[in-house]
């Protein structure tokens, strides 16, 4: 029978030292990837980051074609973006350039960061569990990248469309600051990526006994309400857009419950053997 590695072999200070080097190596990986994005910075900003500010963006075109097929109103199609993005600070564009490259570096180096985290926690796992490192990194990375894609292609364009078309009066013209737009991009992408990690988080919380399937089912209705509120905040005030945002989030929560059930049953089976 596999036993856990003796954690007593390392002192508290030794664990802190390991954690320090984990942070150093992870930060180094982020900086290296951020530096590499410098060579594609024109494409990163012009095509990717500012893509959702153009009517020709993939998401807008997709929903326009979908509306035609479903016979919806023509006003779903976006022909213009009635706003401009302006820089109001002397060092504003420099700060944005640096932080967006760091964000890109974090996203690109995420699998490596997961590997470092796995190496740090693996001594506390069973031998059989340590053998699943590749599965853990692959699944966690896949979920994170799916969340990033969801944030970029769904949350950001819907948010941009909503704030661009919302107005309290025709007298007021939308002129967004560069910092506010970039803040929305960073929040949407990171929130999407981290939220899609929920099944992995639930997996470990269930193994630690901090969460049970019964607990997740008990508060299911509250989770649905929170998800619907978030979907309503980040989308235009129409049912179709809110549903498109809410459904993937609900599926992720349901997947988390399913994973919790599997882990809980497996633990009970092992205790009864």
From TrEMBL:
<feature type="transmembrane region" description="Helical">
    <location>
        <begin position="189"/>
        <end position="210"/>
    </location>
</feature>
<keyword id="KW-0653">Protein transport</keyword>
<keyword id="KW-0813">Transport</keyword>
<feature type="transmembrane region" description="Helical">
    <location>
        <begin position="219"/>
        <end position="237"/>
    </location>
</feature>
<keyword id="KW-0472">Membrane</keyword>
<dbReference type="GO" id="GO:0043953">
    <property type="term" value="P:protein transport by the Tat complex"/>
</dbReference>
<feature type="transmembrane region" description="Helical">
    <location>
        <begin position="96"/>
        <end position="115"/>
    </location>
</feature>
<keyword id="KW-1133">Transmembrane helix</keyword>
<comment type="function">
    <text>Part of the twin-arginine translocation (Tat) system that transports large folded proteins containing a characteristic twin-arginine motif in their signal peptide across membranes.</text>
</comment>
<protein>
    <recommendedName>
        <fullName>Sec-independent protein translocase protein TatC</fullName>
    </recommendedName>
</protein>
<keyword id="KW-1003">Cell membrane</keyword>
<comment type="similarity">
    <text>Belongs to the TatC family.</text>
</comment>
<dbReference type="GO" id="GO:0065002">
    <property type="term" value="P:intracellular protein transmembrane transport"/>
</dbReference>
<feature type="transmembrane region" description="Helical">
    <location>
        <begin position="135"/>
        <end position="156"/>
    </location>
</feature>
<dbReference type="GO" id="GO:0033281">
    <property type="term" value="C:TAT protein transport complex"/>
</dbReference>
<dbReference type="InterPro" id="IPR002033">
    <property type="entry name" value="TatC"/>
</dbReference>
<keyword id="KW-0811">Translocation</keyword>
<feature type="transmembrane region" description="Helical">
    <location>
        <begin position="243"/>
        <end position="264"/>
    </location>
</feature>
<dbReference type="GO" id="GO:0009977">
    <property type="term" value="F:proton motive force dependent protein transmembrane transporter activity"/>
</dbReference>
<keyword id="KW-0812">Transmembrane</keyword>
<comment type="subunit">
    <text>Forms a complex with TatA.</text>
</comment>
<dbReference type="Pfam" id="PF00902">
    <property type="entry name" value="TatC"/>
</dbReference>
<feature type="transmembrane region" description="Helical">
    <location>
        <begin position="21"/>
        <end position="40"/>
    </location>
</feature>
């Amino acid at each position: 029978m596999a036993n856990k590695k003796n954690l007593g072999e390392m002192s508290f200070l030794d664990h802190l030292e390991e954690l320090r080097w984990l942070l150093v190596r992870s930060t180094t990986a982020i900086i290296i990837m951020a530096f590499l994005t410098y060579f594609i910075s024109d494409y990163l900003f012009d095509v990717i980051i500012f893509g959702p500010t153009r009517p020709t963006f993939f998401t807008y075109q997709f929903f326009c074609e979908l509306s035609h097929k479903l016979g919806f109103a023509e006003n779903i199609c976006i022909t213009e973006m009635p706003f401009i993005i302006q820089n109001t600070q002397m060092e504003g564009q420099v700060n944005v350039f640096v932080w967006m490259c760091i964000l890109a570096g974090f996203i690109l180096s995420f699998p490596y960061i997961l590997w470092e985290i796995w190496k740090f926690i693996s001594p506390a796992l069973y031998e059989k569990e340590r053998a699943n490192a590749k599965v853990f990194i692959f699944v966690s990375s896949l979920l994170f990248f799916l969340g990033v894609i969801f944030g970029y292609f769904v949350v950001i364009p819907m948010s941009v469309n909503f704030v661009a078309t919302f107005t309290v009066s025709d007298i007021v013209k939308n002129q967004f600051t560069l910092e506010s737009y970039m803040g929305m991009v960073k929040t949407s992408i990171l929130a999407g990526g981290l939220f899609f990690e929920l099944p992995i988080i639930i997996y470990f919380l269930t193994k630690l006994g901090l969460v049970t399937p019964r607990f997740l089912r008990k508060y299911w209705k509250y989770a649905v309400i929170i998800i619907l509120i978030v979907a309503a905040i980040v989308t235009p005030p129409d049912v179709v857009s809110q549903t498109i945002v809410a459904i993937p989030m609900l599926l992720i929560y349901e997947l988390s419950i399913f994973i919790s059930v599997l882990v809980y049953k497996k633990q009970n089976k092992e205790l009864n053997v």
